[in-house]
């Protein structure tokens, strides 16, 4: 109560002062207008402003407006300004005084446009304009919503507004930038416009419910404000509205308040217009005084150019932030809206030279690393050098040892070399000897070759001689056989006593003659045959004949003698075997073998076995005679070879029988002969003759 009384007292004092001021002005204007008669004809614009001229906001807006309108309008405008304190003007008596004052002040001047700024200014013009400026076009800057409705019903009126809702935008932006904030302090002056803005903020916050708790502080002095806000919890923020006057009605400016208060606060402050930007607030969705000034000039230009119907022009807001405050309250730039301006960027040395510093640190680190590496390598090098020296020493020792070993080996090698050289020389000498020998051998070989040729020649001659000899023997034997036949014939006749009786001695002698003659004839016959064979002139005549008959014929020749000896003769052969070969020579061979079997056997039996095989006929003549020693077997078929035995003389013989038989078998009959014998037990002679053999009938 006490305080309210104080405020009322102060208000009365201010009212008195204002009336006095107006009275002084009125007197001055009166004197001046009297002197300035007739009326000033220049283009005039009246600006009614509820912001004190001390506010940076109004000055900034006005500067831009004046500059712009003078650029737009062809002739220079004369602009008059009237400050209407909103609180005071609400008093009807004061308002009436002010209107009176304005009437007197501007009675002779013709305004082309009246501009009202801020809600209180707009209110004054809306309520009292007709009383002092009827029919003059009116332009309202930043009216309230209710005022807009009233203005729109007027014929010659325009409005300048802000595009976005800067207060609501900022209130929402605080929450985005500082999500932890739950407690908001809304601060405003006690002026009429201040309260208008406070009322708007209340409306928005009541509607949006952005914060858990909201505290409204109105018209406090800076000291009071600091005191009030210092008790604020940490999760708080300040929304600074306008500050035109304190509770005592004393004019104040928002800039003043912010400058004094914000450095002492432990919580961030925000606001909604750019005049206070850079004075301690973080930022927000800010209206721009310059934008207002420009828009106001454009709107004024339109009205001055004759546009009279109601219209609205808007000035844009923008998100602006004080870089220093962002840093102070640790607000990351990522939380800022995309379209924003960040000013007062003060880069720290780190911010400014971050990459250079990082680079330098990296460089130093690199250098340090390199130095470390260098030192490490040096150390390693020293270690290596030591190791190397050790290895070298070891190597030298090893080399020394090896050299010694090598020298020893070398000496050994030299000795070996010497030996080798001596050996080489020996070998060389041997080689020469060998060469000599070779030469000699070559000479001998050539001699031998010559000899061989001579021998071959001699052989040829010998063969020729042999042939001639055989021919000679053959012809001689033939010549011998004729007289021998007559000797044998006549001896036989004489022995048969056909030519007279003979005494025993004569008979015996003649018998010896006949035996010798027969032996000689046989010998000659054999010699003739051998000669014929050796000279290649033996006759051969192949025919088909009965082997059975041939065997019988051969057996018959010895039958009597066998029986005389008391021996047995056996023949074993298939019933009918015929073959194709030289019959006479085969018979001769068989008789020879049978004759031998008979001659060299004293008892037992003689057997003939005929075995016709696939391609050959095998004739085996076996006896149980004296047999032949194994050592004598190879000699049997040589000419004139006879095996010594007790029967040698008794049997008689030439040693040509088997030789001739073999020759006949091999060269005439194209067969082979073989013998198996056991001394004292008997012998078997086998002839194999190739022949076309058929059993049962004669072959063709
Ligand atoms: P030889 O006219 O002496 O009988 P061969 O040439 O017919 O001459 O025989 C040579 C020798 O072979 C004979 O002297 C005899 O010693 C021996 N010989 C031949 N056939 C028989 C046989 N069947 N048994 C024992 N010895 C034989």
Question: Can you characterise this structure?
Answer:
The chain is of the alpha/beta class. 56% of the residues lie in helices and 17% in strands. Strand 19 and strand 20 (682-690) form a beta hairpin. Helix 14 (504-534) packs parallel to helix 18 (657-668). The chain is rod-shaped and about 235 Å long. Residues 1-11 and 13-39 have low confidence and may be disordered. The structure holds adenosine-5'-diphosphate. Adenosine-5'-diphosphate binds at residues 596-597, 599-600, 623, 625-626, 628, 636, 642-643, 645, 653-659, 683.
Q: What's the SSE blueprint?
A:
Layout (H helix, E strand, L loop, with lengths): L1 H34 L8 E6 L6 H17 L5 E6 L2 H4 L2 H15 L4 E7 H15 L5 E4 L3 H8 L4 E6 L3 H12 L5 E6 L3 H17 L4 E6 L3 H9 L5 E5 L13 H8 L7 E2 L12 E5 L1 H16 L6 E5 L1 E6 H6 L12 E3 L5 H147 L8 H31 L7 E5 H19 L2 E5 L4 E6 H17 L5 E8 L3 E8 L24 H4 L5 H12 L3 E7 L3 E9 L3 E2 L5
Parallel strand pairs: 1-2, 1-3, 3-4, 4-5, 5-11, 6-7, 6-8, 8-9, 12-13, 15-17
Antiparallel strand pairs: 10-12, 14-16, 16-21, 17-18, 18-20, 19-20
Helix pairs in contact: 1-4, 2-11, 4-5, 13-14, 14-18, 15-16, 16-18
Bound molecules: adenosine-5'-diphosphate.
């Amino acid at each position: 109560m006490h305080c309210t009384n104080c405020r009322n007292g102060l208000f009365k004092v201010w009212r008195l002062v204002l009336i006095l001021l107006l009275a002084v002005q009125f007197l001055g204007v009166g004197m001046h207008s009297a002197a300035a008669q007739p009326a000033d004809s220049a283009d005039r614009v009246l600006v009614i402003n509820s912001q004190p001229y001390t506010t940076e906001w109004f000055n900034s807006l006005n500067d831009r407006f004046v500059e712009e309108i003078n650029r737009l309008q062809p002739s220079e405008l004369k602009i008059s300004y009237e400050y209407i304190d909103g609180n005071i003007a609400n008093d009807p008596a004061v308002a009436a005084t002010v209107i009176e004052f304005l009437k007197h002040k501007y009675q002779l001047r013709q305004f082309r446009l009246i501009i009202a700024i801020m809600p209180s200014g707009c209110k004054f013009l809306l309520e009292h304009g007709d009383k002092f400026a009827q029919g003059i076009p009116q332009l309202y800057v930043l009216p309230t919503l209710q005022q807009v409705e009233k203005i729109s019903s007027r014929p010659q009126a325009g409005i300048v507004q802000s595009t976005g809702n800067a207060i609501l935008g900022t209130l929402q932006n605080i929450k985005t930038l500082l999500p932890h904030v739950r407690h908001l302090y809304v601060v405003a002056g006690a002026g009429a416009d201040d309260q208008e803005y406070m009322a708007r903020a209340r409306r928005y916050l009541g509607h949006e419910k952005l914060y858990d708790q909201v505290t409204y502080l109105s018209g406090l002095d800076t000291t009071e404000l600091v005191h009030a806000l210092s008790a604020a919890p940490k999760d708080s923020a300040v929304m600074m509205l306008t500050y035109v006057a304190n509770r005592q009605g004393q004019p104040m400016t928002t800039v003043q308040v912010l400058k004094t208060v914000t450095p002492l606060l432990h919580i961030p402050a925000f606001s909604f217009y750019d005049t206070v930007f850079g004075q301690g607030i973080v930022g927000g969705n800010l209206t721009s005084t310059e934008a207002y000034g420009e828009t106001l000039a454009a709107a004024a230009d339109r009205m001055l150019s004759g546009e009279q119907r109601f219209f609205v022009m808007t000035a844009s807001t923008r998100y602006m932030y004080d870089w220093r405050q962002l840093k102070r309250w640790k607000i990351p730039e990522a939380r800022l809206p995309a379209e924003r301006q960040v000013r007062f960027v003060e880069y720290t040395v780190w911010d400014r030279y971050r990459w250079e510093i990082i680079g330098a640190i990296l460089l130093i680190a690199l250098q340090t690393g390199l130095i470390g590496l260098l030192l490490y390598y040096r150390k390693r090098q020293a270690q290596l050098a030591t190791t190397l020296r050790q290895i070298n020493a070891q190597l030298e020792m090893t080399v020394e040892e090896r050299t010694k070993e090598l020298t020893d080996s070398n000496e050994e090698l030299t000795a070996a070399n010497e030996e080798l050289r001596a050996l080489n020389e020996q070998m060389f000498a041997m080689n020469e000897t060998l060469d000599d020998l070779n030469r000699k051998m070559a000479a001998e070989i050539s001699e031998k070759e010559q000899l061989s040729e001579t021998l071959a020649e001699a052989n040829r001659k010998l063969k020729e001689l042999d042939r001639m000899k055989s021919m000679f023997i053959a012809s001689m034997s033939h010549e011998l056989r004729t007289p021998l036949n007559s000797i044998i014939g006549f001896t036989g006749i004489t022995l048969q006593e056909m030519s007279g009786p003979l005494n025993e001695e004569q008979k015996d002698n003649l018998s010896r003659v006949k035996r010798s003659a027969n032996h000689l004839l046989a010998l000659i016959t054999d010699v003739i045959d051998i000669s014929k064979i050796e000279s290649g002139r033996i006759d051969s005549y192949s025919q088909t004949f009965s082997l059975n008959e041939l065997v019988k014929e051969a057996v018959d020749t010895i039958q009597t003698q066998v029986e005389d000896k008391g021996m047995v003769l056996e023949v074993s052969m298939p019933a009918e075997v015929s073959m194709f070969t030289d019959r006479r020579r085969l018979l001769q061979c068989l008789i020879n073998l049978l004759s031998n079997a008979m001659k060299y056997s004293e008892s037992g039996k003689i057997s003939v076995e005929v075995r016709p095989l696939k391609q050959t006929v095998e004739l085996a003549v076996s006896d149980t005679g004296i047999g032949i020693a194994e050592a004598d077997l190879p000699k049997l078929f040589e000419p004139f070879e006879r095996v010594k035995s007790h029967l040698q003389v008794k049997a008689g013989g030439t040693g040509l029988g088997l030789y001739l038989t073999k020759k006949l078998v091999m060269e005439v009959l194209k067969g082979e002969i073989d013998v198996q014998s056991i001394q004292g037990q008997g012998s078997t002679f086998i002839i194999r003759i190739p022949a076309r053999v058929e059993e049962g009938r004669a072959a063709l």
